[in-house]
Amino acid sequence: MNVILLGPPGVGKGTQAKRLTEEYRIPQISTGDMLRAAIKAGSQLGKEAKGFMDRGALVPDSVVLGLVDERIRADDAKNGFMLDGFPRTVVQADTLGEMLVKQGRAIDHVVCLLAANDELVRRLAGRRTCNKCSAPFHVDFKPPRKPGVCDACGGELYQRDDDKEEAIRTRLVTYDTQTKPLIEYYKGKKLLRSVDGLGSMDAVYARIREALGPA
Ligand code: AMP
Model-level pTM greater than 0.85? Predict the structure, then answer.
């Protein structure tokens, strides 16, 4: 099953994708995680991406498309994948479609998670991320058992630069102008399922499962 998880920053794509990949046995492919890994590794690509990311702007399409093209060909993605945070522009969506046609594959479902902007700001500003396994936490909604320490791997929790107020505002505007048009784009292809992103993690998870059907 080839799935795209679409939706604004902070709506819970990463959290839900992590859980869905276990049940559906397909890897989560998060371009944000891949870019942060490149920054951490000090690679040239990471250096190029960092400035854009820190201020909440999109990294150029060419950079992200190269990463995804390679990643979806990997062995663990042969039976499917869950794209999280990609595509984010119409150019990315068009190019993804072309890549998949060349490989004799296609997108099966696009699930769009929805939430109002004030809720997204609340979620993003309180978000903390593990510096080792990138598991997401939240100071109010999902605090770790031990403050500052990841429950899953013991890594240190930090606040991403782009989860600070100024960058959050830029990311929401970026979403509205560059990514939101993908809702109509995938509606036109009859692939889109909209899912209410409000409520508990379990409630949202159940809605997504219903939209996707059985594993
Ligand atoms: P995320 O972890 O998905 O919120 O992504 C964090 C940041 O990485 C974004 O604000 C962008 O700067 C960059 N990024 C992630 N995915 C993409 C993408 N598909 N296209 C362009 N930039 C991206």
Answer: yes
Report which secondary-structure segment, H or E, holds 68. helix 61-71
Map out the domains of the chain as residue ranges.
Answer: 2-27+74-115+173-212
Best CATH choice for the domain 2-27+74-115+173-212 from the list 3.40.50.300, 3.40.50.450, 3.40.50.720, 3.30.750.24: 3.40.50.300
Is 25 part of the annotated catalytic residue set?
no
CA 6, chain centre distance (Å): 7
| pLDDT single digits (tens) 143-198 | 999 999 999 999 999 999 899 988 999 999 999 999 999 999 999 999 999 999 99
Record the tokens describing residue 16, joined without a space. Answer: 């839900």
Q: Residues with Cβ < 8 Å from 2, sequence gap 6 or more?
A: 80, 81, 100, 105, 106, 107, 108, 109
Give residue 31 CA to ligand 1 midpoint distance, Å. 6
For residues 27 and 134, what is the distance between their CA atoms, to the nearest angstrom? 15
For 70-91, letters b (16+ CB in 10 Å) and e give ebbeeeebeebbbbbbbbbbee
Type of residue numbered 116: A
Q: Could you count the other beta carbons within 10 Å of the beta carbon of residue 200?
A: 9
Which residue, judged by its Cα, is nearest atom 2 of ligand 1? 32
How remote is the CA of residue 176 from the centroid of ligand 1, in Å?
14
Q: Can you read off the two tokens belonging to residue 194?
A: 């909209």
**Rounded distance, CA 1 to CA 204, Å?**
20
